[in-house]
Design a protein that fits this description.
With 222 residues, the protein is an alpha/beta fold. The strands form 2 sheets. Strands 5-4-8-7-6 form a 5-stranded antiparallel β-sheet. A 3-stranded parallel β-sheet has the order 1-2-3, sandwiched between helices. A hairpin with a 5-residue loop joins β4 and β5. The model has no long low-confidence stretch (mean pLDDT 86).
């Protein structure tokens, strides 16, 4: 734990058989440290020690290796964990870059599970619609309730046409933000099909073009 206070290794190997070593306590402490969530933790256990495995899983251990094992097999396990960890780090960096880019251009992504009303929003979608990031389980009604009343029928007809498979969803509409601000959001979406070819969800985007609309209105006025 003293070592982890000043260092974040890519992988930590803990032997549950080491006298005086509380692998669960070490992992719990590590996960509570800044940057500790990215460290992979491999625990060496005795065969059949299910109690340690269960407790360690709850503490956030990444993987286990049960005795007996060979050093060659353990080496393969460690290399696999390092490779998969590097891929996960790359993915997280890419997601952070994408989120930053979307925030700069005011572009939000959303998906709508057609088996119900559940939706999945990116952070920018929350901001554009005026919901806090901790708003639980966004649903289609949360989105539609923000649409300006004068545009509600247009959006509804476009959605129905898309769900019937007639054309992709593409409509410009206004949104009333939670603070009362009126935003102009072109919305695009397409149907995603499951392996059987049946529509399973809608995947779409919204983008804030309010400044452009206001500039166009000013130009027309002039």
């Amino acid at each position: 734990v003293d070592f982890l206070a000043n260092s974040r290794p890519d992988l930590l190997v803990l032997d549950a058989a080491t006298p005086g070593l509380d692998v669960v306590g070490v992992c719990t402490t590590l996960r509570g440290m800044e940057g500790g969530s990215r460290v992979r933790v491999l625990v060496l256990t005795e065969e059949g020690d299910s109690e340690t495995v269960e407790r360690a899983l709850e503490a956030g251990v990444s993987d286990f290796a049960a005795r007996p094992f060979t050093s060659r097999l353990l080496g393969h396990r460690i290399r696999h964990m390092l490779r998969s960890g590097a891929l996960l780090d790359d993915l997280q960096r890419s997601e952070a870059t994408l989120e930053s880019a979307q925030r700069l251009v005011h572009l939000g992504n959303w998906t709508w599970d057609l088996s119900g009303h559940e939706m999945n929003w990116t952070a920018e979608t929350y901001r554009l619609l005026g919901y806090p990031l901790d708003h639980p389980n966004p649903r289609s009604q949360d989105y539609l309730s923000r649409v300006h009343p004068d545009d509600a029928d247009t959006v509804a007809r476009a959605l129905e046409s898309t769900l019937r498979g007639e054309k992709s969803f593409s409509v410009d509409h206004r949104v009333v933000h939670a603070d009362g601000t009126l935003l102009f959001l072109p919305s695009e979406a397409e149907i995603v099909r499951n392996p059987q070819g049946q529509p399973s969800k809608l995947s779409g985007t919204i983008q804030d073009i309010t400044d452009r609309k206001q500039a166009e209105s000013r130009i027309r006025f002039l």
